[in-house]
Specification:
Helices cover 36% and strands 22% of the residues. It is an alpha/beta fold. The radius of gyration is 20 Å and the shape is globular. The protein binds zinc ion.
Length: 315
């Protein structure tokens, strides 16, 4: 019987389910609207879907654990979701303890962006590299940092909040409450507001195709580039992986983004040897990444840095 991990990629709009084996093959994919889960209380809805899923696939596969990617900040023990800006009511929830008791199997929890990064690192064959960073431009700016084989967690578990570095010339209030975060000049939420205000009648999906040379759009792309350059200047990474919905939009100006990244990265190094990779878009990347994470946790090869205190559950 094939051994798998039941993996979830929880997003603001959809939750994706799948079973992932040790070779990162995925089976039994399913999508559920996040709002549907929240109807009876998110955690209750989640348990009901998980039980249904286990009943359906439990005879065909041996399900070893559950691995979940949340669009949230997570405490450094990787047991509790601290805050989830895009899903109401998902703040300060002891997700791991709750699900372990209800599901009677090991449960692993990680930020969705770290699951994406693990997927991409494996995809590009970079698991042996010293420093790899992933920067994903969606509604906000997601960032995962992989150092010496571990994910960087930080003292509170929230390392990698790259979207919230200050961009002093901006006066846009950020969703986090701070003034002038780079996300409020370079993220997708800002791009939508910009599109409505400056280009009425243009659908958001066409904004780069129709207006990529306009100064307002160039400034938004420059803010993206400044965020990437900031991380490169601090970490001098071996590889930078770029991805997210904005880069998948029609005629996204990749060349311009790279130009701005190089403009704001220190010369001659790290700019000279900068290695940028572009994530291959895939709806299942987050689910597969959760599988890679789960198998690593099950085998006790800890992902968390020494600064964290996550103790993986025993299989
Ligand atoms: Zn912010």
């Amino acid at each position: 019987m094939t051994e798998v991990i039941l993996c979830l990629d929880i997003g603001g709009t959809n939750c994706r389910f799948g079973l992932v084996d040790r070779e990162s093959q995925i089976y039994g994919q399913k999508i559920t609207a996040t709002a549907a889960l929240a109807e009876q209380g998110f955690m209750e809805g989640l348990v009901e879907r998980l039980l249904r899923y286990v009943t359906r696939f439990g005879e065909q596969f041996r399900i070893r654990a559950i691995s979940l990617g949340f669009p949230s900040t997570i405490d450094r023990t990787r047991r509790c979701v601290l805050s989830t800006p895009n899903i109401p009511g998902l703040d300060n929830i002891p997700v791991v303890d709750y699900l372990k008791e209800r599901m009677q199997m090991p449960v692993f929890l990680e930020r969705d962006v770290n699951m994406l990064l693990l997927h991409d690192i494996k995809c590009f064959g970079l698991l042996g590299e010293k420093i790899v960073v992933g920067i994903y431009f969606g509604t906000g700016i997601g960032n995962g940092i992989f150092i010496n084989g571990d994910l960087l967690y930080g003292r509170n578990g929230v390392a990698g909040e790259l979207g919230h570095i200050p961009q002093l010339q901006s006066h846009n209030q950020c969703g986090c409450g701070n003034p002038s975060c780079v996300e409020a000049m370079g993220g997708g939420k800002y791009l939508e507001e910009l599109c409505e205000r400056e280009f009425p009648g243009t659908r958001i999906k066409d904004v780069y195709r129709l207006h990529r040379d306009r100064p307002q759009i160039r400034a938004q792309v420059e803010a993206m580039g400044a965020a990437v350059a900031c991380e490169v200047n601090i970490l001098d990474p071996d590889y930078v992986i770029l991805g997210g919905g904005l880069l998948q939009m029609a005629d996204f100006p990749v060349d311009l983004l790279e130009q701005y990244i190089r403009k704001h990265t220190r010369k001659p190094h790290p700019e000279r040897n900068l290695r940028l990779l572009f994530s291959q878009a895939g709806q299942e990347n987050g689910v597969i990444g959760a599988g890679i994470y789960g198998w690593r946790m099950l085998s006790q090869q800890r992902f968390c840095s020494e600064s964290g205190s996550a103790v993986p559950a025993r299989a």
